[in-house]
Design brief:
single chain, 115 residues, alpha+beta, three-stranded antiparallel beta sheet, two-stranded antiparallel ribbon, 3 helices, 5 strands, 25% helix, 18% strand, rod-shaped
């Protein structure tokens, strides 16, 4: 990755290791650790390529994804639990495939009046 000098100082963090003259420097950045500098070519006429990847394993990424997407059940009142229990216990399907749910009745007998 090629980084311009306008962004370079903002990416650097404290933490740098060097192994001596004509060796690359390992520098800590906000992007992770980078390797930069000269490589000695003494006694060699072949080119050297280095590829480094600092990505967490896919199973770690999936674990984080599922933790973020985990459905947290809200705390329900006794009345809400009773309504859900009624739905589960009384829901059936008729011969046409439609769902049939018996209407719930409140535990208290309320008088509707003379209507």
């Amino acid at each position: 990755m090629l980084i311009g000098s306008d962004l370079y100082p903002y990416l650097m963090k404290n933490g740098r290791y060097t192994y001596g003259k004509n060796h690359p420097v390992v520098q800590k950045t906000h992007l992770g650790w980078i390797l930069l500098g000269r490589i000695s070519k003494e006694g060699t006429d072949r080119s050297t390529t280095l590829f480094m990847c600092n990505e967490p394993p896919i199973d770690f990424k999936l674990q984080i994804f599922w933790e973020q997407e985990e459905i947290v059940s809200p705390i329900r009142t006794k009345e809400e639990e009773a309504v859900e229990r009624h739905f589960v216990e009384t829901t059936t399907r008729d011969e046409t495939g439609r769902f049939v749910v018996r209407l719930p009745r409140h535990s208290q007998n309320l008088q509707l009046g003379n209507s």
